[in-house]
Amino acid sequence: MAVQTMTKTETADLPATMDQIRRVAEAGADLVRVAVPRDQDVDALRTIVRESPIPVIADIHFNYTLALKALDAGAHCVRLNPGNIGGPDKVAKVTARASELGTPLRIGVNSGSLPKHLHELERENPVEALVTAAVEFVELMERLSFENFKVSIKSTNVPNTISSNRLLSERIPYPLHLGITEAGTKWSGSLKSAVGLGTLLADGIGDTIRISLSTFHAEEEVKVAWEILKALKLRQRGPVLIACPTCGRLQFDMDSVVAEVEKRLEDYEDPIEVSVLGCAVNGIGEARHADFGITGAKDMGMIYSRGEPLKKVPTERLVDELFEEIDRYYAAGKRVVRDEADAAKAREWLAENEDATAMTPERMAAMEAASVDEEPVRLDEELSPVAGRRFTRT
Ligand code: SF4
Prior knowledge:
Helix 1 (14-27) links the parallel strand 1 (2-6) and strand 2 (31-35). The protein is α/β, with parallel strands linked by helices. The chain is built from 14 helices and 13 strands. The chain has helices at 14-27, 39-51, 64-72, 88-101, 119-124, 126-143, 158-171, 186-202, 218-231, 254-265, 318-331, 340-353, 361-374, 379-383; strands at 2-6, 31-35, 56-61, 77-80, 105-110, 149-154, 176-178, 208-210, 240-243, 273-277, 292-296, 300-305, 308-314. Bound molecules: iron/sulfur cluster. Iron/sulfur cluster (SF4) binds at residues 244-247, 249-250, 277-279, 281-282. Iron/sulfur cluster is lined by residues 244-247, 249-250, 277-279, 281-282.
């Protein structure tokens, strides 16, 4: 599953474009697309392809001569829409050159630019119209003996994107690029993309993804793409931050603590899990899988690791001490370094601060186990081992 993004700079502005490409590559982009609408962009493309740390896709849209020039400039892939570059003859010229160079193409269908003969179908059944257009382009490629391509169906409509890609994945054997066109701002666009792309990815559909956001910072698109892939456990990259939603039990400024932890975690590449709990009322059970975590109260808080307390610290030192523990862990060769005296004080603090009556996962598991052990075997249980089970909760 490859993460793609697109530069927002004028491609011919080499310093700005290269700076953005380096930033998206650092953020985890596997591929970057640049717009190539003019000859001066083709000139810049030659240098970009040479200097980019990741493969570069040239987006040429309407002009087949630009597609040929982009191929000759060394683009690692060229994106075009066979429906709007002037007919099959021109598509054939591009596929012939791409074949000679061994360069792949991305062919696409956009809901806003379907071929005329599909307009009526589009009104009746927009999903079928999108898929039909994509399949027609695929058949054109096959007639031209060109199979080194991926396909994208783009729509601003999330349900249509999901349905059309599901249908297309059943009808063609080629890789699919997923995206929601003009998804919107960082907030709404991320959510729409997470719903649309997340649904398809969870179905096992999609080979490359791009999150389209209205921001000049393309690296934001990459970060969102990674969060979606991480949430679905499709790829791992960098730490995973777990944070409780907070509630009326919160006694410290968790908003700024979570933001600070998230920011500092950007410096780490390892996929460690770090948890932030707003209080210790429920113990640390729900965060017991976290490699490291913090929980706080009014003046004092605690650092823990894999469900075990490490030390208690003043609330204002929580974040600094958390990162000292994380750094100590790496310095010791990924081994948690525990000072037993500090851990004992932290355990004491936890016992004072957690709610002894709260139903933590550990307590429930222990109670159920105890209940099963102590359960007298009754006649009806002998007859039906499941029907007779009784759990006694105290
Ligand atoms: S950990 Fe504490 S503050 Fe956070 S949601 Fe749970 S009870 Fe509320």
